[in-house]
Amino acid sequence: MKLELGNFYRILAPRPAVLISTIDGRGKTNAAPFSFVMPVSSDPPLVAFASAPGRHTLANIREVGEFVVNIAPADIIDELWVCSKSFPKGVSETKEAGLTEKKSKSVKAPSIEECIGWIECALEFEKEAGDHVIIVGRVVNAEAKDEFFTEGKFDVLKAKPLMHLTGKDFAIPGRIINPRVQ
Q1: Mind listing the domains of the chain with CATH numbers?
Q2: Which DSSP letter does residue 98 get?
Q3: Residue-wise pLDDT tens digits, 41-74
């Protein structure tokens, strides 16, 4: 099946569904879902996501220079969807969705308690890329809930991170496979 070029990303699926939380200069918080997200470097630790130019998330990052990548579990899919709605600037999507903000360890932006893990970031740089802006953050703190680790490894089957397919379609991991080649 030939895809429209603008829909190429639909076969780069599933992608992690995250909530990016931010705070503006007046202390108003914001949280929005993103799935165009990826690790960029481990030394230095960098993570990137792509944002449409008009998002409050982007404006807050430009103003304060910090954000948190909150890894969403499957059981908050409805709350994540509430956070995707267009609220006026200054309205907390987190509170509208009934999620709990908690103080982050290294940045002003709050973390979201109900999430699996949190990657706190300082803005490293941004770059316009077509109809989006790529935000690259330097990871200044990263944590995950202890119960999602088995023998020191992140257990995706237990954590059930929410994966975005397209639109309102999501998935969760169901099986782990390994290559047979040694």
Answers
A1: 14-171 (2.30.110.10)
A2: T
A3: 999 999 999 999 999 999 999 999 999 999 999 9
Cis preceding-peptide flag for 44 (omega within 30 of 0):
yes
Beta bridge partners of 68: 21, 120
User: pLDDT, tens digit, for every residue of 99-156?
Assistant: 999 999 999 999 999 999 999 999 999 999 999 999 999 999 999 999 999 999 999 9
Is residue 131 exposed (0-12), middle (13-18) or buried (19+ Cβ within 10 Å)? exposed
Q: CA-CA distance, 166 to 100, in Å (whole number)?
A: 26
User: Closest Cα partner for 154 from 176, 137, 179, 121?
Assistant: 176
- In contact, 34 and 18? CB cutoff 8 Å: yes
Tell me the two tokens of residue 118.
Answer: 């949190």
Highest mean pLDDT of the ranges 117-121, 167-171, 177-181: 117-121
Residue 173: asked if its preceding bond is cis (omega within 30°), the reply is no
The model carries a pTM of 0.95
Beta strands in the chain (DSSP E): 15-16, 18-23, 29-34, 37-42, 45-51, 66-71, 101-102, 111-112, 117-129, 132-144, 149-150, 153-154, 163-166, 169-171
